[in-house]
Structure formats: structure tokens, C-alpha cells
Amino acid sequence: MTFPETIQVHSDPQQLLDVFFSKRQYTQVMVLVDSNTAGNCYKVIRNFLPAHGVIEVPAGEANKTLETAAVVWEKLTLANLDRHSMLLILGGGVLGDLGGFCASTYKRGIDFVLMPTTLLSQVDASIGGKLGIDFMGLKNHIGVFREPAATLICPLFLRTLPQRELRSGFAEIIKHCIISDSEKWQHIRTRGYLEQDWELLIRHSVAFKTAVVAKDPVEKGLRKILNFGHTIGHALETCSLQTPDRLFHGEAIAAGMIAECFISRELSLMSAGEEHDVKTYLRQIYGSVKTPQLSEFMPVIRQDKKNSGVKILMALPERIGSARWDVEVSEELVGEALRSLDAKY
Ligand SMILES: NC(=O)c1ccc[n+]([C@@H]2O[C@H](COP(=O)([O-])OP(=O)(O)OC[C@H]3O[C@@H](n4cnc5c(N)ncnc54)[C@H](O)[C@@H]3O)[C@@H](O)[C@H]2O)c1
Ligand SMILES: [Zn+2]
Questions:
Q1: Residue with the nearest Cα to atom 5 of ligand 1?
Q2: Which residue among 79, 146, 149, 293 is least enclosed by CB atoms within 10 Å?
Q3: Please, are residues 251 and 217 in contact by the beta-carbon 8 Å criterion?
């Protein structure tokens, strides 16, 4: 399990920072935190940093906006950061996407370092160079591809992460195992999400995602396998936003994986036994979700960015441990898969 030297995983944050700053010289260092990582995570690293300033923005997806980006650009400007300065981003996927976007555009781009503090950002969002903000209600609508100077991953930050956030991030790890590594899948499914070895699993996910991204940086082919669970999952997440039972991303993706394994089995890509194993484990960890009406759900599915023209295209596992992408799926089968989420088993 290898990945590029710019990505480091270590249980000691001081070690990560010492090694990084011993190799790099910057005129100024600015740390970006959100209102939660300011209290929970900054104190863990502040004494291991060179002289620096701090920018704090409000936490949450609702703040992944142009307005927040403008605040960050303004503060970088007022602090006179030049092109040889760097921004260290200490937070989850929202902050990484937003902060990375701000750094990539400030003076045509300064170095930034991601120090992801949620499980989801450690195994997914901080890998692959996608940066951006939401705009006009559209997620990640404005953005760029750019790699950080380094990604420093420390599982220690997970200690303060709320359990529901931890469980949500775990769904991406499960996804990586199902589409790439049947042995690892057998390993994780013997225990609950609170008994996992995070450092081991983070290394596994990072190695897998970096290998996929290296082969297909701008998602023309192979990278699409990472969308397993996300066609149906995203639509469930979107529909849940209108209800009092808002789903976290990973909870929606877990239900999406169950429904997409149903489709995979219907298309004879996966066996009934494998589908049953995935469903049983995911239900055990995530419970079941309230499903929307088909009339509300299908229009959302049809808008999915992964589709081509009128066809619904999905990434599906073909037996556990491998996957294929751009599999065409009929609307009828999508409807059946959604109904299967309600069925008792
Ligand atoms: N760039 C990509 O490739 C990519 C991939 C997947 C997701 N994303 C993006 O990631 C975002 C979701 O990321 P997320 O789930 O990390 O959400 P997040 O950044 O909103 O973090 C979740 C919550 O946990 C808090 N938090 C973070 N670290 C903490 C810690 N150690 N202790 C206590 N609280 C902490 C945050 O303040 C926030 O309230 C979405 O905007 C999504 O679009 C990007
Ligand atoms: Zn996801």
C-alpha cells in the first residue's frame, strides 16, 4: 500500500508538521479553521507550527460559498500574504474544498496544505485535487483541480469528531473495500464502526484512491468507479434535505450502496449471497432510511451529472472487490431498487 510522498499518514501531528516544515520555507503561514476545528483541533497543533496567523470561518456546508471565500481572500490580502506564503487548512471536506479553492486562486495560486480532521476528508475529500464552492444552490459548481503541497493525515483528530460524522465517513471506506478489495471487506465486516483500526483503513483508502486518481485524474473513465452508491445515494441525500430527517452524506451513500447492489445482482454482476452480505452489514451499521416517493426521486436521478443524455449510468460492483462504470440502468430497475430499500429481509 503506497501513495505519493506528498501524502503522509501518522498518529503524531508534531511528526507530520516537523517533517513538512523542515523541507519547506515560506514567507508567511496562515492557518484556516472553522468554528469547530478552532476549538477541537487547532490546540493539538498550534505549538508545532512556525509563526502564523489564523483565519476562522463558520462551520458547515451552508458556508461553502462565494461569500466565505471572499472573507478568506480578504483576510489573506489584509495580512499581506505574498506568493511564497502558504495556507494550512485544518478541517473537514467543506474547509478543504473551500480553503484549497481560495489558495489556488489567491495571486494565481499559493501553496496550501490539507490537514483533514474528519474521517470523510481523511479517506476521500482530501485526495484527488478537487476543490470548490457551492454556487446558486448547486454543489461544487465553481472550482478547480489543483493538488496541495502536502496532505498530512492524523487519525488523532477523530477523537473529537461526533460519532455520527465518524459513521458517515466510514461509508466511503466500505465503498472503497467493496469496489477494490474483497479481503479488506471481509476484515471490516466482522466488527462495528467503533472497533475499526482507523489508521490502517485510512492508509488503505488513501492508497486506493490515489492509484485510481493517478490513472484518471479528470474522471474520464476509471475514476467513475468511486461513484458506486452515489447515484442513488446522492438522490436520497437531496430528497432528504426537504424533510426533518436530513441524511448525512455517508448515511445516504450506505443506502445507495444497498440499492445499487440490488441492481448489480439483478444484472447478474454480483451474486445474491454477496448482495445479502453487503445489505446485512450496512443495515447493522446504518439502520434503514425513509425512502422518498418515486415521483420525487426520479427527477433528481435524471439530473445526475454522471448520466449521458437520457441514459441513467452507474458504477456498480461486479462481485466484491471489483467494479465497472457507465453501466446503463433502466428507470424501472432504479424504481425497483428504491422499493427494495423498504422491503423487510
Ligand atoms: N474534494 C473532493 O473530492 C470531495 C470528496 C468528497 C466530499 N467532498 C466535500 O466534503 C464536504 C463534506 O466533508 P465533511 O464530511 O468532512 O464535512 P465538514 O467539513 O462539514 O465537517 C463535518 C463537521 O465536523 C466538524 N469537525 C471537523 N473536524 C472535527 C473534529 N476533529 N472534531 C470535531 N468536529 C469536527 C466540522 O466543523 C463540521 O461541523 C462536502 O462539502 C463535500 O462536497 C469533497
Ligand atoms: Zn461520497
A1: 125
A2: 293
A3: no
